[in-house]
Write a structure and sequence with these properties.
Length: about 250
C-alpha cells in the first residue's frame, strides 16, 4: 500500500475516533444547555467556523501558490544548466566547466534532495555549485566574439543562483509558527464546539461531527504537505535534474 492510501486511512481513522470520542463524552457528560443557549451558541460557533474556514483556505491557497512556484523553478533551474552547457561549447577549454555542471546536477539529485527531505542543506552540493563558478572564472575567451558569450554565461549563472536560492528557501517551509499555533488551536476549539453542538438526532450528530473533523483534518494535512514540498506525500522529485544531466552528457559526447 502506498503513502497516499496510508495518509487517507489515517485521516479517516482520526476523524472517526474524534467523532466517537466527542459523542461518547457528550453522552456521559451532557452540556446542559437549554434551547435559547443553544441558539446563542450556534451563532457564535457559526462565526468561529466561518473565520477558521477562511483562515485554513487562505493558508492552503498561499501554500499552493508557493508549491506551484517551486515546481516551476525546478523546471527552470536544470534548463538553465543545459543552456550554460550549450553556450560553453562555443568557448575553448570549457570542458571543466561542463563537467562541473554535470557534477552539480548529479549532486542536487543524489545528495541535496535527500538533505532537503530532512529540511537540511547539502555541503557537498554547495561545493559542487561553487566549483561551477570557479570553472567559469577559469575560462579565458580568445576574442571579443567569444568574450560576449562568456559575459552572457554570467547572466545565466545569476539566474541559476537565484533559482537555487529560491529552492533552498522552501526547505524549512514558509508558514511561520504563529500560523501553526492558530491552526492547531482552531482544531482544539472545533472539538470543543462539537461537544456543545447538539442537533437532537444521534445519526445526524455523528455525520455532522465526522464531516467537520474530516474536513478540518484533511485541510491541516494538506497545509503540512504543501509547506514541505520536498518531503511527505505531495513532494517534488529531482527527475528534471536527472533529465538535464543526461542532456548535458549527450552534448559533451564526441
Amino acid at each position: 500500500m502506498n503513502d497516499e492510501a496510508w495518509n487517507i486511512i489515517a485521516l479517516v481513522c482520526a476523524a472517526v475516533a474524534g467523532t466517537l470520542g466527542a459523542f461518547v463524552i457528550r453522552r456521559r457528560r451532557p452540556h446542559g444547555l437549554d434551547a435559547m443557549q443553544k441558539n446563542l451558541l450556534a451563532t457564535n460557533i457559526g462565526y468561529f467556523a466561518t473565520l477558521y474556514t477562511f483562515f485554513l483556505s487562505f493558508a492552503v491557497i498561499t501554500l499552493w501558490n508557493n508549491f506551484t512556484d517551486t515546481s516551476e523553478d525546478l523546471a527552470h533551474e536544470p534548463y538553465t544548466a543545459v543552456i550554460l552547457a550549450r553556450e560553453a561549447r562555443l568557448l575553448p577549454h570549457s570542458e571543466p566547466f561542463r563537467q562541473a555542471l554535470e557534477g552539480y546536477l548529479e549532486s542536487v539529485a543524489r545528495d541535496e534532495w535527500a538533505a532537503m527531505a530532512r529540511a537540511e542543506r547539502s555541503p557537498v552540493t554547495q561545493e559542487r555549485y561553487d566549483e561551477v563558478w570557479r570553472a567559469w572564472e577559469r575560462i579565458r575567451p580568445e576574442d571579443g566574439f567569444k568574450a560576449a558569450y562568456h559575459v552572457r554565461m554570467l547572466e545565466e549563472l545569476k539566474d541559476l543562483s537565484r533559482l537555487r536560492h529560491a529552492r533552498l528557501e522552501q526547505v524549512r517551509g514558509s508558514l511561520l509558527w504563529p500560523f501553526w499555533l492558530l491552526i492547531h488551536l482552531g482544531f482544539v476549539f472545533t472539538l470543543v464546539a462539537l461537544f456543545y453542538t447538539d442537533l437532537g438526532h444521534g445519526l445526524a450528530d455523528l455525520w455532522y461531527m465526522g464531516m467537520m473533523l474530516f474536513m478540518v483534518l484533511i485541510n491541516i494535512w494538506l497545509i503540512r504537505e504543501l509547506d514541505t514540498p520536498f518531503s511527505g506525500v505531495l513532494r517534488l522529485g529531482p527527475e528534471r535534474f536527472l533529465e538535464s544531466l543526461e542532456r548535458i552528457r549527450t552534448l559533451t559526447m564526441p
